[in-house]
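--- STAGE predict ---
source: upstream dedup step, 1 unique chain passed
mode: sequence only
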Amino acid sequence: MTNSTRMAALYRYSVPMEAGVVLRNQRLKTRDGLLLHLQQGEQQGWGEITPLPEFSVETLEQAQQAALAWGQAWVADQSPAPTLWPSVAFGTSCALAELSGQLPQQADYRKVPLCSGDPDELFDVLAALPGEKIAKVKVGLYEAVRDGMVVNVLLEALPDLKLRLDANRSWTAAKADSFAKYVNPRWRDRIAFLEEPCKTRDESRHFAQSQGIAIAWDESVREADFVVQAEPGVAAIVIKPTLVGSLERCQELVTQAHQAGLVAVISSSIESSLGLTQLARIAHWLTPDTVPGLDTLNLMQAQLLRSWPDSTLPLLQSEALECVWRS
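--- STAGE serialize ---
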């Protein structure tokens, strides 16, 4: 890349959410975040910095301060100091990867539809999907027994279906076992994985081995003591780049997972359409054999800068956003 003048801008956005989006203990009325734009000569790159309330360690204000400091150092052609905040590390690394041409254009827009439990509705959606039939079901929000019955009905009704389940560490060991009791042992190998069923890793490991239902690490991947390794009953790791950190960190985790014989799944933290299209490119690049978990755009009421294929949501350009800094 030439040493031509560097320019940058930081925009803040707020997109209304569909009613009823709840994250842990908080109803999310708007999705608020930052978009970083870098320019150098003919090249340009965008990155999204969007901490997820209830999940990110940093607030949006902290992320904005760090992004501003990073941008000012980059424009001055200094090496920006490494940031502590995962969302900032991810967004800045994406902007740089676009700027340098490192982030390939090809994208994986395949969806894992989120299922509410109606097999007929899911059947229609899956019939339209090319290739492997995979759906996702959130469990742990209602009674474990109800979850087990819903999963069993889906697997029984749709013989070529594989399910990804996500419990967000919501079950005690006893509740996890009562869920499993209602899933026919003959169908259990069609549960691709159940993300973090229990409150502790050890309980989740015991569940996987005793019930014959594969698990995946999600929250654990972001904890300081986590090591990617092959373990009985563990099938996958879920990588949410906004919560994990830089593109380099995500690459490292994917490589470690593949070396351990695990599936690595690139997954959304409810980014805007700009961030989601970048995640789709990252998934095609780093995990081409695995359908990513990016079916979250329908939670929003608008798209930003880049549209997701076939989405009918209105598309907002940078002029509609608040510019908080420009150089």
